[in-house]
Design brief:
- This protein has a single domain (12-178), classed as nmb1532 protein domain like (Four Helix Bundle (Hemerythrin (Met), subunit A), Up-down Bundle).
- The protein contains five helices and two strands.
- The chain has helices spanning 12-20, 31-61, 70-101, 103-135, 143-178, and strands spanning 25-26, 29-30.
- A two-stranded antiparallel ribbon has the order 1-2.
- Helix 2 (31-61) packs antiparallel against helix 3 (70-101), helix 3 packs parallel to helix 5 (143-178) and helix 4 (103-135) runs antiparallel to helix 5 (143-178).
- Residues 1-9 and 11-20 have low confidence and may be disordered.
């Protein structure tokens, strides 16, 4: 699959795969589309879990901040990165998984997970703001509060990723391997 192509069933790539009948459909999605969606979903999770590790390292090191500026780089990129990853999940990946697994069966899970994306993004924005304040020497929050905020964010992101794996990725993989 070329970069930038959408994975949704009905895409030009999906139609080409079905016309050739080389790959069976899995639910309502073409097999290659579902495999690519799972691969991309796992890639999103890897990037999110990397953010979680960086947040945890920051929390563990408080009240000191790293001298190498890693906290500034994280604060400047985290909100945008989360929004971009969530947009990729919602616009490209989740529609394929829903098609493969049955929209009716996963609609509630997808709605809840999508709502959690917005909450996580808002919390990430707040954490970024506080990290930037700390870096500028404006400590309106003490180390315990910042640590609580960091831990709350990375715990929620990890729980959310685990739920996506359990409710969507694992069933998609089972569908691919059973078929």
């Amino acid at each position: 699959m070329r970069g930038g192509e959408r994975l949704q069933s009905g895409s030009a790539w999906d139609k080409g795969a079905r016309q050739n009948d080389r790959e069976p459909k899995v639910g309502g999605a073409c097999g290659p589309c579902l495999r690519e969606a799972v691969r991309r979903f796992e890639g999103c999770h890897t990037r999110i879990l990397t953010i979680c590790e960086e947040l945890e390292q920051l929390a563990d090191g408080l009240p000191a901040l790293p001298s190498n500026g890693s906290h500034l780089r994280l604060a400047r990129r985290m909100g945008t990165l989360l929004r971009d990853l969530h947009a990729q999940e919602e616009q490209e990946i989740l529609p394929v998984l829903a098609s493969a697994l049955g929209v009716e069966q996963v609609a509630d899970s997808i709605a809840t997970l999508t709502e959690e994306h917005r909450t996580d993004e808002a919390v990430a924005d707040e954490v970024c703001e506080v990290l930037l304040e700390w870096a500028a020497g404006e400590r309106h929050h003490d180390a315990a509060t910042l640590g609580y905020m960091l831990r709350g964010l990375f715990d929620n992101l990890r729980r959310h990723s685990a739920r996506e794996r359990d409710q969507l990725i694992a069933p998609a993989i089972r569908r691919l391997t059973s078929g």
